User: Which sequence fits this backbone?
């Protein structure tokens, strides 16, 4: 029983999370685990996970669902299944295998454009069999996870707000309907600027220009985003302050239309 208890404690160190977006890859690292992730959709990712210790080897899959992937702080739920191999001399020589199933709820925070910190917690059911002595045991362990994740791929460049299907096309919209959609894209672009996701912001402002090609606020923000991406904007703090004020400006735009 002492061996099983030690394995349960060891497993509790190994489970971490990483967020992702559509067609984006992610790498998660911690002590002593690693993970690789791929975004199936903008709100769902699949993740392979592994952890190694001189006495325990854990590997498995996790499915993640994100509630608000466009925000800086992303909330998610996950389901996980793992296979466990262990050998140990804690009490006397022995080795075996087992499985672990768990569900988690947590949050991931973007500290940089492609870098995040995450925390999650949830119950994990673990069943183990010591094959050398034909002894089995199982139990539930509450697991607290912390990790660092890095994302790369095409997802960032493809991110843009989608207009729900079944809506009128541009030629069928009246002036007020166009203003509603322009406000939606403009506000989303401003939000992405605040988060430092300049490619996404440019995509949103370009959507505004489809309805009004001379929209000055969107044109100005596109130029600013391009400068930030190229590193030619040296007034970073001033730009950040201006972008924060744009949230209020966007609300004015929503009321007045421009």
Assistant:
């Amino acid at each position: 029983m002492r061996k099983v208890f030690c394995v349960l404690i060891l497993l509790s160190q190994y489970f971490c999370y990483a967020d992702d977006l559509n067609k984006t890859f992610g790498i998660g690292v911690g002590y002593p685990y690693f993970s690789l992730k791929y975004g199936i959709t903008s709100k769902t990712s699949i993740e392979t996970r592994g952890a190694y210790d001189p006495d325990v080897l854990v590997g498995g899959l996790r499915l993640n669902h994100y509630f608000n992937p466009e925000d800086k702080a992303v909330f998610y739920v996950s389901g996980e299944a793992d296979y466990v191999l262990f050998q140990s001399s804690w009490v006397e020589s022995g080795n075996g295998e087992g499985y672990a199933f768990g569900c988690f709820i947590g949050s991931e925070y973007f500290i940089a454009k492609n870098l995040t910190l995450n925390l999650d917690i949830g119950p994990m059911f673990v069943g183990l069999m010591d094959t050398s002595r034909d002894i089995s045991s199982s139990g539930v362990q509450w697991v607290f996870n912390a990790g660092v994740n890095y994302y790369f791929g095409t997802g960032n460049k493809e991110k843009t707000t989608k207009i729900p299907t079944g809506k009128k096309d541009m030629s069928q919209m009246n002036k007020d309907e166009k203003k509603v959609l322009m406000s939606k894209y403009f506000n989303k672009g401003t939000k992405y600027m605040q988060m430092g996701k300049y490619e996404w912001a440019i995509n949103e402002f370009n959507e505004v220009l489809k309805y009004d090609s001379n929209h000055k606020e969107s044109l100005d923000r596109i130029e600013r985003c391009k400068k930030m991406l190229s590193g030619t904007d040296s007034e970073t703090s001033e730009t950040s302050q201006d972008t924060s004020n744009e949230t209020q400006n966007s609300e004015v735009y929503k009321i007045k239309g421009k």
Remarks:
- The chain has two domains: 2-155, 160-256.
- The helical segments are 2-11, 155-158, 175-195, 198-211, 216-230, 236-256.
